């Protein structure tokens, strides 16, 4: 487990780095507007993007190594865009990001949490299953308006 991690909420200066990481991790679909997702998280009391940093081995500053977007509607929480830089994967960072998102929701008295996962991403489905998430008997439906 990676113990040198530091977490904080996104700030205005992080916008492009977050979008770049999401893109690098393959999380952005053609119909997505990642800059808008970041703006919503920055402007909302019910959403946030939590960033994971760790000390850089070469430079003295902290390097952003992961993100998780979290939010709620007052009773139900959601996790979106959990991303770990490919050079830092398989070190427990994704687990820590998921736990930080859960803690963020618990602090707001949200006890029901779902995560949207692409059905083509078996590795991510297994990741969340290992964290205790179950596949819910529901269909996600969407409409672009």
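Q: What amino acid sequence fits the structure above?
A:
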């Amino acid at each position: 487990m990676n113990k040198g991690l530091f977490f904080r909420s996104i700030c205005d200066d992080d916008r492009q780095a977050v979008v770049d990481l999401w893109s690098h991790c393959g999380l952005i679909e053609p119909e997505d507007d990642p800059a808008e997702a970041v703006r919503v998280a920055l402007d909302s009391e019910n959403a946030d993007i939590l960033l994971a940093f760790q000390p850089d081995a070469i430079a003295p500053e902290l390097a952003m190594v992961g993100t998780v977007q979290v939010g709620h509607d007052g009773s139900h929480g959601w996790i979106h865009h959990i991303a770990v830089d490919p050079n830092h994967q398989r070190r427990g960072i994704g687990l820590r990001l998921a736990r930080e998102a859960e803690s963020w929701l618990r602090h707001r008295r949200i006890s029901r949490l779902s995560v949207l996962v692409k059905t083509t991403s078996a590795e991510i489905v297994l990741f969340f299953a290992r964290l205790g998430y179950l596949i819910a008997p529901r269909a996600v439906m969407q409409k672009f308006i």
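Q: And what stands out in the fold?
A: Residues 93-107 form the longest helix (15 residues).
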